[in-house]
Amino acid sequence: MAGERATSFGAVAESYDRLRPPPPPAALDWLLPDGCAVAVDLAAGTGLLTRELERRVARVVAVEPDARMRAVLSARSPQVEAVEGRGEAIPLPDGTADAVFVSSAWHWMDPALAVPEIARVLRPGGRFGLLWTSRDSEVGWVRDLDRLRRREAATDGRRRPVRDVTLAGSAPFAGVAEASFTYTRPMALDDVVGMLGTYSGSIVADPRERAASLDRARALLRERFPGADLIDVPVRSHCWRGRPELLAEPLVRDRGEAYCDCVTEIQIQSHGQDERAERVLDAAAELLLRWGYQRVTIQEVAKHAAIGKGTVYLHFRTKDALFLTVLLRAHHQVIGTMADRMDADPDEALPSRMMRSVYLDLAADPMARALYLGDPDVLGRLSQEASGTLGGLALVRDEVARRTLTLLRDAGCLRTDIGVDEQMHVLGAVGAGFFFVDALPGSPPDPVVRADLMAYAVAAALETPSAHVTPEVAAAVAEAYRSLISHVDDEWRRRVR
């Protein structure tokens, strides 16, 4: 396991054990092989999975590196063998177990080291199982709550908040299967907020930012459930299982809390890995701009991409899912380009430079322009669904913008005679004016001139004279925007098979 976040949970071990949801019995029934006599719970934490295994298996060995987490586990399950160890170095003899399970912790492990160890510990024909149990982000209010509280992910010290973890190549597992199980867990409102505080990003955050983030979550819940004593929290457990043989197909997972907070599918392909899906998206984007959403059909997309109609449905469940993915891809590209510019030129983190560049990006990219301006001729009925999806992302984008302004104010690049909220309003108002009314009589015909005028207006309103951004501050701002990409990608994955 790696980093401060991976070992942070012991600081809140009691709360973790009380507030985190255990896996449902149906998940255990599906994961456990027939006749399982010895099961290993790897990275067992406080024993949420251990206790479920204990009810079904004669011998359970819990392997956990954190003594604080292990102490809670032993207090709750004194009959279980609890040993210190990691997935990359399991302190058990060869062929010990009929099953090895990792619950909500695989993203912290190094598969190159953990996979051979798990195979070594398993008996011939044994089973390896992965599960991720968390609040169900497919439910609207849970998704809104997740988006609201991701502010701390922007500055967690990692190069990128989301990475791919691949179990493939020589990994000795086959017979791969996957399943998902749901249940509802009644919780007091304050306990729901407390549960959010047991995730690593919140644990290691600055105490003031952590408190502010949890306060915002509490306010959202009170608004959503006024006067409620208990909230029915939807829980989803995503499960994967395999047996020790040659792996038939790769298991791709996301590393980091951005994944474990918001799991979407057990098997995910990274952007660009599937050339055929990219071809479908390219064709859909071209036809969307040419004909508009109402006129484009899946059959036309398939014909334009030179593939069968059924192949489109292999990747995208519905027409809406396909075209929303087109929009999300455009959103991903715009944000990624912004962050890359800041890496190359720190002053691109200034609001005036940032908005100028985005204005020119949208002028050159009709798809991104239709997305950001909600063009009804292009989007048609899709604009309603897009506004729901991108409206949720807007909450996260506002958090990132607020964090950016705070960083620049602290660095002396922005005026401080007005507050951050007022500066957010200025940015929104100036941006809306230039983006939406650039066709007014007398407007300069050259988009570069219009972009320069917008940059002038923003700089005059917000920035200090001769403001320049240091590489360190620009890196923090770029990382904040890259964290937004992970939220865009979460929405992307929800729509791709």
How far apart are the first and last residues' alpha carbons, in Å?
30 Å
Mean pLDDT: 78
- The amount of helix comes to 40-55%
Strand order of the largest sheet: 3-2-1-4-5-8-7
Report the radius of gyration as a whole number of Å: 25 Å
Beta content? 15-25%
Number of helices: 22
Shape: globular
Largest sheet: 7 strands, mixed
Number of strands: 9
Low-confidence stretches: 151-166, 246-273
Q: What oligomeric state do these chains adopt?
A: single chain
Backbone structural class: alpha/beta
Describe this structure in words.
The protein has helices at residues 3-6, 13-19, 25-31, 48-54, 67-76, 111-121, 140-148, 189-196, 200-203, 207-224, 257-260, 275-291, 298-305, 309-315, 319-344, 351-364, 366-373, 376-379, 382-410, 420-436, 447-462, 471-495, and strands at 38-42, 59-63, 81-83, 97-103, 122-135, 163-167, 173-188, 230-244, 251-255. It has 497 residues and is of the alpha/beta class. The strands form two sheets. The chain has a seven-stranded mixed β-sheet with strand order 3-2-1-4-5-8-7. It has a two-stranded antiparallel ribbon with strand order 6-9. Strand 4, helix 6 (111-121) and strand 5 form a beta-alpha-beta unit. The protein is globular. The two termini are 30 Å apart.
